[in-house]
Fold EamA/RhaT family transporter.
Amino acid sequence: MASRQTHHLRGYLFALFATVLWSGNFIIARGLSGDLSPISLSFYRWSVAVLVFLPFSIRQFIVDFSTLMKHKLYICINALLGISIFNTLIYRAGHTTTAQNLSMIAIIFPVFIVLISVIFFKEKISIRKIAGIIIVFTGATLLVNKGQISNVLNMDFVVGDFWMLLASLIFAIYSILLNFRPEGLRLIPFQLSTYILGLVFLTPFYLYEQISSPQIPFDYGSHVFIAVLYAGIFASMSAFVLWNKAISYIGPVKTGMMYYSLPVFSFIEAYFFLDETIHLYSILCLILIVTGILLAVVQSTRNT
């Protein structure tokens, strides 16, 4: 009994640590908004991730190369959505909205999954799910309008919140595609392939940006360099490893539940590192969003 409890505890801790590492990515998105463009930050992040991940995965990549080539279109689409577009949109959103808002909107993606499943896969939707979706979008609407009903009527909002909503939609599509990963396509080679291809897709945009409006090279001893290393190593590879370890210990459902704690860590980090004020409306919107997600996504014990 004790060993089983220890087993579960490790799983929850792995999931929690992964979530903490991911929460830091939103601090970077906001904190570096004045130092690097979204394209540059995304390019540097995935350059680091590829360099760090390569030694651990190159052998499996070579062995599975023929399998990877067989599914190249599937891998390309996943790389474009999950690596290139999704992360760049987060960094774009960070230029105009807070890290708190980024993290709260990020956890909405399961609701988009439900909506996509209903519209495109004709999945049945219950009253419980409909109620959950309404609550989530009520929370999100109040959030992007700073808790003011008058702002909703006047269409007074921050554009970064809508970039982040688009990022969440992209991540939902990416997550659905992951469910269709072909048999025989192993996780590690697949992951390395998406990292490399995501970087390849970013490269022409990065080069164009550097040629058309070159940025001053950042100081390699600066906070920018440390943040890029964090994003490339901890928010990419380390979080991925911890998350998959958690799934092996406690399963995907319980692991996924831990992801909804992400805004809590982002709130704390944003307060200490970015001097962001934690508003009452932000906490209320977070409660609405998490409540709605639990209603829309999590099955009842009887159904489970």
Summary: Confidence is low (pLDDT under 50) at residues 300-304.
